[in-house]
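**Protein of interest**
===
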Amino acid sequence: MGVRQTQLTENELLIGQKPIFAPLRKPFLVRQLISLFLFILFLVPQMSEAQRWKRYRHEVWGGLGGTNFMGELGGGAQEAQDLFMDFDVKSSRYVIAGGYRYKLDEIFSLKGGLAYARVYGADKFAGDVFRQSRNLSFRSPVIELTGQGEVFFIREKTSNRYRTRGIRGANGSGLSASLTGGLGLIYFNPRGEYNGKWYSLQPMGTEGQGLPGGPDKYKRIAMVIPFGISAKYSINRNVSISLEYNFRFTFTDYMDDVSGYYFDPNAIAAANGGIGSESGDAAAYLSNPAIPLEKEDGTIFIAGGQSPSSPAQQRGDATTNDTYMFAILALNYKFTSKKTNRPKY
């Protein structure tokens, strides 16, 4: 009897424990399952959204804009200053550009571009007497090939904020912005005007390049460092418009054919067909078309002096290279890649 009573007592205790623990364990397990289910429901769309950008990695762009040259020639209404402080709106010209963009991730992109532009500068627009008297001017085509990196400090959105069946979502603003920088290569060919005709200046050697006692001929191909900022607005997932403002720091001081010192115009004319020939007279004039001007103190000043070759007078500033800028309004189109994680049957 003692054994049976003991067994009954233990069974009764075990049975008696169920009402105590079972109600506690089952709801706790259910709550954990519900929490896990809700977490998965939240996580899956977030993971999908986070990877959405991969479907829009490839993008082409093209646009138009304006250029401005910042070198020895021309300049603003004040005395010569650096970069945009020497901006001269009257010398602005056009640029046509296009290229390809590849998105590395949501923040970093690589961009290649090809541009054709015109740059121009003229001392007659300058604000100081020296440049006005120097009276030089030029124009040049620029063919530019660049590769740049982009860092988006305001990221592009690829969520469902776009209009779908008349309903606009609330995710994202469509506005993004980035800093850009890279390397490039340009071809340029400065030309000057004489008697209504434009001449290529590099072959003439307007500073005595290639002549005895003169510097070497400069090359018309140079490296550039583009650096700037860009803002983009997405119209939909594939189409956007952007505005980019870039400086181009060059590795040449001869985009405007001006860098060093005046050279004997008679020697320059002799090397270009001789005095009295059309090309010789053009070369001599384009090397020094200076005009006399009256300074504030009433004295007459002429850039280069009456005998610019003896001693040599400063014509440009060889301590700084030329700079130009692009402002481009572009249309961008992203290609949509097919999903690769769909189940195959």
